[in-house]
Amino acid sequence: MSSTLFRTKKVEQSILDTEEPEHALKKSLSALDLTVFGVGVIIGTGIFVLTGTVAKNNAGPATALAFVAAGVACALAALCYAEFASTVPVAGSAYTFSYASLGELPAWIIGWDLVLEFALGTAVVAVGWSGYIQSLMDNAGWAMPAALGSREGSDVFGFDILAAALVLVLTGILVLGMKLSARITSLVVAIKVTVVLVVIIAGAFLIKGENYDPFIPKEQPVEAGASLDSPLIQLMFGWAPSNFGVMGIFTAASVVFFAFIGFDVVATAAEETRNPQRDMPRGILGSLLICTALYVAVSIVVTGMQHYSRLSVDAPLADAFKATGHPWYAGFISFGAAVGLTTVCMILLLGQTRVFFAMSRDGLLPRFFSRVHPRFRTPHRPTILLGVVIAVLAGFTPLTELAALVNIGTLFAFVVVAIGVLVLRRTRPDLHRAFRTPWVPVIPILSVCASLWLMINLPAETWVRFGIWMAAGFFVYFLYGRTHSRLARSEQTQP
Length: 495
Known about the structure:
Elements lengths: L1 H4 L5 H7 L13 H12 L2 H15 L3 H25 L6 H8 L2 H36 L21 H16 L1 H27 L26 H7 L7 H12 L19 H30 L10 H8 L4 H34 L18 H17 L2 H4 L3 H22 L14 H15 L3 H25 L1 H8 L2
């Protein structure tokens, strides 16, 4: 029994499966495309919102150091992802890596986890995008009917048509091909990064040195007390941590870490990359480096423009410009956030469909979903199915209900991938590794410790919900996946 649960799929077989005509994805992505995907999914509302929250509640101007600490934690995981993605350039990311190193059951569990994480993440972002668009419409004097708008905090039952429409449009784009998706993403990311750079450059001229005093606050100022009820932190964690000093920086890092969620999605596109051995490490590490630099710069600027104790927790950048007499930037920043969320939504949806496709190709889900479109060479069946499901989910479900399970899934994937690097180094030292994680086993062990530490900071309710979803995953695996996997069938046919 245990031997079947932990049977591994050889790397050579995983790569061979990508060459089957009916199940082969089109290779069209470059290192630049992957970097753009990474930047597109990482930079979202986090850069526009989290900065003010953690500056006011935890780190003050030292929020920049919190972003550095979170970036380092992500870099540890990114180095592990880069080795796997260049060694096993197959769709599925952490699922595929786990199948090659830890076995079928761990692979199923991480795949099950990623499907939920990406689905809820896509729905959350779509609802957030809808809220920004409705805000911009209200500013222009166009009010969305209550029955067709966002229902967060509203007593009116309705369907968020904007959120659902966004998911369906992006689903259509993904079906039409990765190159088209990459071009649209590049355009939108260029707009988003331009907005961020304008904020940084314009805000730099409004910095006052006295706002950096103290740089690392030792206690919470009286006027910051109201910020403990930050809706964003309550949404993400169910609680609002608030300690200062050096520990405040690390507490802030556990919060802003979630502004980096998404770089691992780049690994799901390994099979559609022209030269994955060279380009996957560049895309993963390059996007993470760019986003960390932008996050640090934004946090330095916003805490220099306005004293951290007076920062807004809902729109710190926009309100900081208003406080300095430049209200025009508020609308500009809201526009940038709304535009930016479209790429976040698209790439999360892309990641989910590729994991679902990989699991289907291995027989752990019905093989019907692993056939690619004869013309576009994309996994159109799972893309359409998941796009419709997520559109309905985003349309009917309130934001607070959607976000409950998103965060813990990514950290769990980081732990599994880091352990997988250690295992595969030991079991398959003969494999050619175009990129090798440095300082093994130190880097993977540090990655596991950093991810577990951040997971411990999550509330008990999140762990309970996560446990329920994992239990459901075990049930589905033993009911269907264990007997239908291609490895199981190949074992049955052997004499």
